[in-house]
Amino acid sequence: MKFPGPILSAFLTCMLVSGCASRSRSVYADFKSPSDTDAWDPLDELVFKTEIPGASRACDVVLTVRHTDSYPSQELRLIVGFHDGNAGEASDTVVLRLADEEGRWLGKTSYGVVTMTDTLRRGFIPTRGGMITVRPDSKIPVSGISKIGISLETR
Question: Which of 13, 44, 129, 146 is most enclosed, with most CB atoms within 10 A?
């Protein structure tokens, strides 16, 4: 039997290396919509129950925001709470940049909806009864936000 040529060998090596490369994989993903479709009330807290039975590996917490052209600002300020199920809580104010200086939306646009993703925290370990909460950091209702997503990804 004749050994494959160097081009075929190089191709197979590339395929093997790219297939075995470290890729993240989602172990939890959920999307929630604000209760009022016209504007997200600052008191409307979205709750993501992140308990994953048997999970002990650290995950990256990834936030996804889906919005329309009716969102009136370049940035979105959110208060994100990390609750560990044992009455422990930590909150962060997250500022997500949604548009550049010229007002062009960042992220991917499809059918009038812009999707923007950002990693909130690395090394998060899901706990029993744990959850992540998200609400707008605003004194007035926020229009144009259609969905908020939280995913936990392992590497």
Answer: 146
More confident residue, 99 or 127: 99
Please compute the mean of the pLDDT values over residues 44-59 and round it to a whole number.
83
Q: Which residues contact 8 (CB under 8 A, 6 or more apart)?
A: none
**56 class by beta-carbon count within 10 Å (0-12 exposed, 13-18 middle, 19+ buried):** exposed
DSSP 79-147: EEEEE-SSS-EEEEEEEEE-B-TTSPBPSEEETTEEEEEEEEEEEE---TT-EEEEEE--SS-EESEEE
Closest C-alpha among 34, 121, 39 to residue 84: 121
| pLDDT tens digits along 90-123 | 889 999 999 999 999 999 999 999 999 999 999 8
Confirm whether pTM is higher than 0.90: no
Establish how many alpha carbons lie within 13 A of residue 80's alpha carbon, considering only the half-sphere containing its beta carbon.
23
Sign of dihedral through CA atoms 93, 146, 98, 49?
positive
In which element (H, E) is residue 26 found? strand 25-32
Q: Do 97 and 75 touch, CB atoms closer than 8 A?
A: yes
